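Hi again,

Forgot to attach this to my earlier email, sorry! This is the prediction with heme C bound. I've pasted everything inline since the attachment limit keeps bouncing my files.
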Amino acid sequence: MTAPRAWFFSLVVLLSMGLSACSYRPTIGPLKNSSTPSTGSQSASGEQIYFRSVDPQGNAITYTGGPAFGGMMMGSFLTCASCHGPEAQGGNHIMMGMQVMNAPGIAYPSLVAMAQQTTGKSSYTLDNFRNAVIQGTDVDGSRLSQEMPRWHMSDQDLADLFAFLKTLQ
Ligand code: HEC
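C-alpha cells for the complex follow:
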C-alpha cells in the first residue's frame, strides 16, 4: 500500500503548488500606469521593459538565474514588476504561507537611500545600476542573492529602464 499512498501524496503536493497563488500578482497587461505618466520616449521604453520584459524593437529581454520557485510562482515569465512591484515599491512574496522572497524597492530615491546606507555616498549611478541588473553585484561589490535574476539587455535598454525608475517616487 505504500506505493499508491506516495503517489497520492505527491499528487496533492503538486496540486497545491500549482494552485497556491503568490500574494503578489504580476502586472503584465497595461503599459501605462496611471500614477506614472510617461513623458519622454526613453522612460516610456523603460516602462515597457519594466512591465513586460520587451525592448522597443519587440524582442524579449531574457535572464539567467532567478528564484528556484520562479516558474511556479509566475509562470516562468518574469518582469521587474513581478518582484519589485507595479510602482517599484518592493514586495514581500508569500507562497504557501511562507515568506519566500523579499524584493527591495527600486524607485530611484530608494536606490539612492540604499547606496547611502552601504557606502555613505548619496548617489546611485547608471554604472551601479548596470552592476546590479547585469552582473548581480551591489554598490559595495557584494553579490546580490540568486533570486535577483541576471538580465541580458543592451546599454540602451538599461539606460531606458534607469530613466523610467527616475520618474518614480
Ligand atoms: C524574481 C524576482 C526578481 C525579479 C524578476 C527582478 N528582481 Fe531585482 N531584486 C530581487 C531581489 C530578491 C533583490 C535583492 C537581492 C539582494 O539584496 O541580495 C533584487 C535587487 C535588485 C536591485 C539591487 C538593489 C540594491 O541592493 O542595490 C536592483 C537595482 C534590481 N533588483 C533591479 C531589477 C530590475 C531592473 C529588474 C528587471 C529587469 C529586476 N530587478 C527583476 C528580485 C527580483
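Residues 7-38 have pLDDT under 50 and may be disordered. The CA atoms of residues 74 and 110 lie 25 Å apart.

That should be everything now.

G.
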